[in-house]
């Protein structure tokens, strides 16, 4: 079926970043249509449909009625790079769209109609990312096109820190052959120090060290195909200063990519977490929440599965003189158990995108006396897990969106559940 002559109304934007429309077929049935680049309220014709049996995916051919919020993207790579979804939408309007995405998912996945206002904390539009990954192709490095392994030759990324863009330009000028370096990660700390990680396909790296050492970064790390990590120059780690405390981390450790939004989250939590006897921090990484809020509790239990993150968390606790922190290395999965006698006034969970399983939520929520704080970068799994927590005796007290990823469909959400 072709939609090239049919005028289609864009109802809303979904969690996948596409516009939702409904296409009436000749037999009277309606098929869902996902329209790339569609904005709510627009009327369009489409092209290049992909039939997914239960829905179509299409691109806009003509704008019959354009949204007043449509704008010309600032980035020359917008139509080819897979990084940004919303540069064609007025930045102020992106807030309302992200609120609608979250509200729709809460209703769809958990039958939750949250009747309070969802707080929204905006960020700067560009230059906010402190971390980026590049893929090699021949002798240049760039970003991947959406949904493919095709590399877009990228001179700079508009949402990345200026120091990252300087390193992209310098690395491309060195012309590393892609058969030597397949991927590059670049990070910049709050102290403006930079780290470059080279993912190589070589076993022995000695002959390339002089070339790699030319990179103008404070730390350069080489990861070989056999899993070895080699520090070419620098300390091998970065340090961030947050709320006056220092946090060391390395290439494999999670840190939020938008430092401004991250600090807004810490302030938001600090002003709402009540003083208590025990705090449980799961997926605790290098110890940010456990250490930042340790002064509010007699004892903090910090659970993390990554050996590298636990290593740096112990360093961070020691250097910040945190003496009430119990760091436990444990995978956080369905077999994870807490001592039956332990009860926690507050629990903070910041899981990966896949969220938490129903069994895991049940196991740990039984140990929470009052407040379960869920921090999520994926509203789909957050809304699913919210339904489980409501069935476990919690209610939603507050929801806040933090625009951690401006110009994209992604955002960070903090939900306060109260028992």
Q: What do you see in this structure?
A:
The chain is of the alpha/beta class and 419 residues long. The protein has three domains: 58 residues, Nucleic acid-binding proteins (OB fold (Dihydrolipoamide Acetyltransferase, E2P), Beta Barrel); 108 residues, Beta Barrel (OB fold (Dihydrolipoamide Acetyltransferase, E2P)), CATH 2.40.50; 161 residues, 3-Layer(aba) Sandwich (Rossmann fold). The chain is 21% helix and 33% strand. The chain is built from eight helices and 23 strands. The protein has an eight-stranded mixed sheet with strand order 7-22-23-21-20-17-18-19, sandwiched between helices. Strands 10-9-8-11-12-13-14 form a seven-stranded mixed sheet, covered by helices on one side. It is globular, with a radius of gyration of 23 Å.
């Amino acid at each position: 079926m072709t939609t090239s002559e049919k005028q289609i109304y864009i109802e809303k934007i979904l969690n996948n970043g596409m516009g939702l429309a409904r296409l009436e077929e000749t037999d009277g049935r309606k098929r869902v249509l996902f329209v790339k680049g569609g904005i709510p309220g627009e009327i369009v014709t489409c092209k290049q449909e992909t039939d997914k049996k239960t829905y179509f995916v299409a691109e806009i051919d003509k704008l019959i009625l354009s949204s007043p919020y449509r704008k010309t993207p600032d980035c020359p790579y917008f139509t080819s790079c897979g990084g940004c979804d919303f540069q064609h939408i007025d930045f102020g309007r992106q807030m309302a769209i992200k609120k609608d995405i979250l509200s729709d998912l809460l209703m769809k996945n958990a039958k939750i109609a949250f009747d309070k206002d969802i707080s929204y904390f905006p960020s700067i539009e560009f230059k906010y990312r402190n971390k980026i990954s590049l893929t090699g192709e021949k002798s240049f490095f760039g970003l991947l096109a959406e949904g493919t392994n095709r590399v877009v030759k990228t001179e700079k990324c508009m949402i990345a820190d200026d120091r990252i863009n300087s390193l992209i330009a310098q690395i491309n000028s060195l012309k590393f052959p892609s058969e030597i370096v397949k991927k590059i990660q670049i990070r910049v700390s709050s102290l403006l120090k930079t780290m470059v990680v080279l993912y190589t396909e070589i076993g022995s790296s000695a002959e390339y060290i002089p070339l790699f050492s030319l990179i103008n970064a404070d730390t350069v790390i080489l990861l070989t195909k056999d899993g070895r990590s080699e520090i070419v120059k620098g300390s091998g780690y970065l340090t961030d200063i947050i709320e006056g405390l220092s946090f060391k981390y390395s290439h494999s450790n999670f840190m939020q990519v938008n430092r401004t939004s991250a600090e807004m989250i810490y302030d938001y939590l600090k002003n709402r977490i009540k003083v208590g006897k025990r705090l449980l921090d799961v997926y605790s990484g290098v110890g940010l929440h456990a250490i930042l809020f340790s002064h509010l509790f007699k004892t903090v239990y910090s659970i993390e599965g990554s050996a590298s993150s636990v290593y740096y968390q112990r360093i961070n606790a020691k250097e910040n003189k945190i003496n009430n922190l119990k760091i436990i290395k444990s995978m956080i999965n369905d077999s994870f158990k807490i001592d039956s006698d332990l009860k926690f006034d507050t629990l903070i969970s910041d899981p990966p995108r896949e969220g938490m399983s129903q069994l895991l939520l049940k196991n740990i929520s039984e140990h929470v006396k009052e407040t379960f704080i869920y921090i999520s970068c994926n509203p789909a799994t957050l809304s699913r897990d919210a339904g489980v927590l409501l069935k476990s005796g919690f209610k939603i007290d507050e929801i806040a969106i933090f625009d951690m990823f401006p110009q994209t469909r992604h955002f960070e959400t903090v939900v306060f559940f109260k028992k």
